[in-house]
Design goal:
The structure is a single chain. It is globular and about 50 Å long. It has two domains: 189 residues, no CATH class; 89 residues, Thrombin, subunit H. Strand 10 and strand 11 form a beta hairpin. It contains no helices and 22 strands. It is mainly beta and 295 residues long. Helix content is 0%, strand content 42%.
Amino acid sequence: MSSNASRYRASCESGRCELSPTSAVLDVGPVEASLQALPGQSRPLWMLDPEPRPVSAHSCAAADWKPRNLGPLLRAGRNRHIGYSTNIVKGEGERMTDLLGRASPCNDAPSHLASYPNLGRKLNNGVTVALSSFAPAGKSGRNQPGNQCSYQAYLTDGSGNPVNLGKEVIPPFTSIYSVIRKGSAAWIGVQFNGYAREFPQGGSFVVAVDLCGGYVLWKSNNYTSNGDLVLVGDDYLITGYGFTAEKRIIQVRDAHSGKVLQTLGIPGDPEAMNFNQGLLTVKTNHGEVSFELLR
């Protein structure tokens, strides 16, 4: 382990662990392999450096969040469109998986409460998500102890302003699982792993943020997103939700305003959304369903 390993510890007072809100994120390389030795951890961890983030030479422009006048995006069907060319971007992350890995303390019954609290992750889409604090939040509805976590999200190149996602946005016992980015606009999926009735304080939603201005634009209703996040073109955001006997849906939103344009039933939990020549196929634990893209 490197000589810097002792710096990777949070300052904890009164049960609350906090990190510098301007912390950078460092790659944990081979020399720090012991820091990655966590059961089931498939991705490298990123440990927060307490030094301030450098001033970036890059500039950014605030996203255009003006609501659009949009029609329906999907209809049931299996017809492909050979010439379909609209750009489709999927969120980075996995359903029912904490974006920061198994070391994250941000659910109920966390397994590594104090091992590696200073976690962050640089995503391939140019966004960094970092854990900024966590504190005990009592027990969830299934009587398991857990934490209230807070995060920062920011552009990895140092441009823009960090978005603080505290308890006003992130409910207890929940974690970030996916992030999708278009320019300085980003949509962040927040989830719990269980039944909605076990998490009455909310979760499983998407929140829109501006990574240039450093603020939150809108948040969807609870219990509407725990599957893939997908941006179709510049305007349509698709989310999916489902868990065992609960409602199983996909929703189409105006990505700028968050307005729900369509709510469509699916046969099971939304395990994956796949696109091919203008056809969306939603894979569920009870079979597949297909939708034609109209835009």
